[in-house]
Amino acid sequence: MSNIIGRCIGETSLVEVSFISKEMPQVGEYVSLKYDGKNVLGMIESMVRGSVSINDDIFDPKTIEKIKEIEGDDHYIRGTVRILGDIKNNLRIPRTPAPPGTEIIPASQDDLQKIFQKKNSLSLGTLISQENVEVKVDLEKMFSRHLAILAMTGAGKSNTVAIVVDGILEYNGCVVIFDMHSEYNINFKHGQSKLIKPEINPLYMSFSEIKRLARISKGAFLQERYFWEAYKMARAEIQNGDEKNRGFIRIMKEYLEGWESGKLLFRGQDVEGTKQIVDVINKMGDLERRYSSIINSSAGNILSKLELGKANLVDLGSVDEAAAEVIVSHILRNALQNNKKWLKEKNDDLPLTHPVFFVLEEAHILAPKNRPTDSKLWISRIAREGRKFGLGLCMVSQSPKSIDPDSLSQANNMIILRLVEPQDQRHVQTASESLSEDLVKQLPSLNIGEAVVLGLMSRIPALVKIEEHKNKEFGQDLEVIDLWKNHKEDKQKKYEKEKNDVINMGGDY
Ligand SMILES: Nc1ncnc2c1ncn2[C@@H]1O[C@H](COP(=O)(O)OP(=O)(O)OP(=O)(O)O)[C@@H](O)[C@H]1O
Ligand SMILES: [Mg+2]
Predict the structure, then answer these.
(1) Which of 57, 131, 176, 189 has the most Cβ atoms closer than 10 angstroms to its Cβ?
(2) Ligand 1 close to Cβ of residue 472 (< 6 A)
(3) Domain ranges of the chain
(4) Share of the chain above pLDDT 90, in %
(5) 237 pLDDT tier (thresholds 50, 70, 90)
(6) Which CATH topology does 121-191+303-466 take?
(7) Phi-psi region of 262 (alpha: psi -120 to 50; beta: other; left: phi over 0)
């Protein structure tokens, strides 16, 4: 038969077979092995090409030339196929290995389409090896088991996010994108984007969030004590309705200034002139100046602004890392606490009464491996318990090795585009049980927009050409040479104009 790719050789196992072929199949291509009444699906994971006569024992290029003249290009292909399951038996791994000599044939398009065609699914693109097979993944499983989109810079992460978000909007879902580079304000096919101003009422901030913004250092216990006391007093005043529109930060400062000048007693004691209080007052001043755009004492609960069927964009492009951490932590913490109340106490009178999917760009900054941050705390909590409370996470990063491993390992679903750095590859492989050594080896050779798709959302691992999002070209490289050239031309034109103006006025140039 002409469509036989090759035949199994050597000892075969339940999970892997080796084959020999004369054809050149593609890595990632699906194949079928028919034996014992089964139709077993497999994926070509690795290949080498060799020649029996041109082997390692030849040391003279002239001998090779002569062999080539006689034999031509008589090569063989040796490869491995990973067994994915019996198509006739709901993709269960068969209980008997394929007999050596079993034919390996291409999997039928019909079978593949049935496997990727699902209810409640989201289309990512097409198979790299079979372009007419659309790859759809299970949206419910993507949501409940979280997603990681990992790749080196420029490989197509943001484009993939846009495709995923569009797929969720098709189901009137609610997506929140923490937009670290202000790049997602685009037209989605299935819904609009909505800009959510990253404003927080300090009254709703946790102590640790406001402390982070005020930059009270870790070991500064005295400063922390004054800061904590002022924070408590301000909360109490506002809760008692005594604040007279002064605002949270103002009230904190009034207490600190009162203790510093001796007008107020600190816990019944006089602490006038303490340097540590002066430091805290200065830090409060810095906080007000630095974060005037995100701190708003009249801001309501940010969760009530989130809309269904929209890509809610929290634009973090113009804030610093500390503010981004605090805003992300604030929103995730509130969402988790809110949804626990909604689902456990059946309380419907809440700002949020539906599931939300959070997209975290630069996940290695928001949930770093080696540094404790507030955002990391809540990212890892949602990664662990979010699925019970209708909160899904999508972590996006170009540096998987720098992401908190606890959070990353909770992302059961992965879309991995081109990834070259060996440490990143190892990290991704540790986090995902289903990424084999052979698939890892494919990661550096993927082209832009090509990805390995893994996890519960996809019944079988797939090499996918992610669809290109039509509404915007993401992250185009700057055409630096043109920009420099234009700059020079503009300068020259300006000079010529000035020169002509002077000459026209009758002057010498
Ligand atoms: N699936 C795709 N098909 C065709 N072109 C693509 C695809 N994905 C990305 N590109 C192109 O590659 C470029 C980079 O894509 P993108 O901005 O999504 O990469 P990125 O991984 O998010 O980069 P960064 O690390 O800078 O955020 C864009 O110009 C985009 O048009
Ligand atoms: Mg990007």
Answers:
(1) 176
(2) no
(3) 6-107, 121-191+303-466, 203-290
(4) 61
(5) confident
(6) Rossmann fold (3.40.50)
(7) left
| Dihedral, CA of residue 223, residue 224, residue 230 and residue 233, to nearest 10 | -150
Taking CA atoms only, the protein residue closest to ligand 1 atom 16 is 156
Listing DSSP states for 229-285 in one string gives HHHHHHHHHHHTT--TT--HHHHHHHHHHHHHHTSS-BTTB--TT-HHHHHHHHHHH
Report CA Rg, the chain: 30
Report the pLDDT averaged over residues 232-257. Answer: 84
- Report d(CA 274, CA 309) in Å as an integer: 54
Question: What is the C-alpha to C-alpha distance for residues 76 and 298, in angstroms, rounded to an integer?
Answer: 73
**Pocket-testing residue among 127, 149, 159, 443, ligand 1, by greatest number of atoms within 8 A of Cβ:** 159
- Among 345, 358, 347, 252, residue whose Cα is nearest residue 302: 358
Name the β-bridge partners of 41. 32, 85
The predicted model gives 218-223 an average pLDDT of 87
Cα–Cα dist 314/292, whole Å: 17
What does the pLDDT look like over 37-46, one tens digit per residue?
999 999 999 8
- Using CB atoms within 10 A of its CB, is residue 276 exposed (0-12), middle (13-18) or buried (19+)? middle
Q: What's the token pair of residue 194?
A: 């909505």
* Residue 186 near residue 193, CB atoms below 8 Å: yes
Q: What angle do CA 471, 355, 194 make, to 5 degrees?
A: 35
Task: State the pTM of this model.
Answer: 0.87
The number of the ligand 1 atom at minimal distance from the alpha carbon of 162 is 18
Amino acid code (one letter) for 326? V
Say whether 19 sits in a helix, a strand or coil. strand
Site to substitute for ligand 1 among 126, 153, 158, most atoms within 8 A of C-beta:
158
